[in-house]
Amino acid sequence: xxxxxxxxxxxxxxxxxxxxxxxxxxxxxxxxxxxxxxxxxxxxxxxxxxxxxxxxxxxxxxxxxxxxxxxxxxxxxxxxxxxxxxxxxxxxxxxxxxxxxxxxxxxxxxxxxxxxxxxxxxxxxxxxxxxxxxxxxxxxxxxxxxxxxxxxxxxxxxxxxxxxxxxxxxxxxxxxxxxxxxxxxxxxxxxxxxxxxxxxxxxxxxxxxxxxxxxxxxxxxxxxxxxxxxxxxxxxxxxxxxxxxxxxxxxxxxxxxxxxxxxxxxxxxxxxxxxxxxxxxxxxxxxxxxxxxxxxxxxxxxxxxxxxxxxxxxxxxxxxxxxxxxxxxxxxxxxxxxxxxxxxxxxxxxxxxxxxxxxxxxxxxxxxxxxxxxxxxxxxxxxxxxxxxxxxxxxxxxxxxxxxxxxxxxxxxxxxxxxxxxxxxxxxxxxxxxxxxxxxxxxxxxxxxxxxxxxxxxxxxxxxxxxxxxxxxxxxxxxxxxxxxxxxxxxxxxxxxxxxxxxxxxxxxxxxxxxxxxxxxxxxxxxxxxxxxxxxxxxxxxxxxxxxxxxxxxxxxxxxxxxxxxxxxxxxxx
Length: 574
What we know:
single chain; Rossmann fold; six-stranded mixed beta sheet; 35% helix
């Protein structure tokens, strides 16, 4: 019914600069279908909505918008008046300014019917009452002036106005904005019912991902005016493939998870001068040189379209069939102990994965194999497409920079004879990176990043002169000094008091987001990891016995060992 092809909306600023607010957007909306458009503030969502109703100057809009085959781009204002409200209607976001303060609400709802349907004032009022009832308003609301209605009631009045002439397409710009949760739920139920009963096509433009998931079967993700991912809503939100979509989904407050909110690093680009190449590349954790210069095309993959040179979110590290056997003393004999048994796992770019299990389950052994400190007796570790277990010489040293370990006991991890500066600088000297001056500057930079002083007095301290929290931060700084892509933190807060635990864990989260790292958090504490983990792996007896999204593993554990860990998790109230 509605076909949009290569739609572009550009504005001039001060008569000179050109703002590409919508840049090459294409999608289809079937009759009676529902399409969602999501993105951050400034992505171009409202500009897109207004373009579909001819509300921008003609010279600003290029491309094609066809409604039942009729081209709408380029229509005169008189031609547009015959289309708006009758064929395609808009419910705007700013309810406070959308209604005329000097007319009663009922008169404003009836105005499109008088113009398009030729109804008399009395007939229009009667029909306005009928439409108002459908959206949950009464005659009292129709007789009121806009300032006498609440924000939610104004939103419903605008919806009634948009529905007055039974349009084929209803464009909803942030329909749930400013609504309380109960009003929001009723509004979404109402919109879903209208679509079922009347076959109205819905275009839902919103930053409310849950509302889009409730109403739309397909979704387009908009970033800086361009669509970066498009496909079935369940697939896009359930398994996002573009790095921006992944960040958007994981920053959304969701009742199904206890994980703390996590923002997307950086800020949206200036629309006057967007970056060249992929517009998301300054904020992307996996950007390569090509992303900085070439604009990625939309590529079809697995039932959806993604604009990414790398084909979407990448797997950073993959373990395949890892095994580790130790020989342990048993009297006079030495017996094999299989510490890790046939483990498979993946860690994606920018992801936080938690590995949990009881003491002796094999967590630390697995973590040390992933970082290359232990050689597996079977299987392999693939880091950024290269076999870490088979690498030797220079290739091994380069790969070692990409994945770093934060060990469990910081007191055992550092040489007590070394100063803070020497501990943090050591990896740079081993790898022969930079000049002495560059090394000193990098040491100070990572110490500042972990919230530690950089004055000469602090740099000259030794391990025994630091608190446990300070020493743990020094060890984290040492792991960061080589600028890794993956940080493996083995029980990083187990030896700290609760207050310092919270500080260090929040610090790890901040560093992980700002530096674009992936994080494998090894812990025995499910109550702790559920606050930060995107996915949780549960280990028992050297095997991964359960894995899944953190929300699912915590609320609907499938394995008895996971249930046992949850039941034993600390609670202040029983």
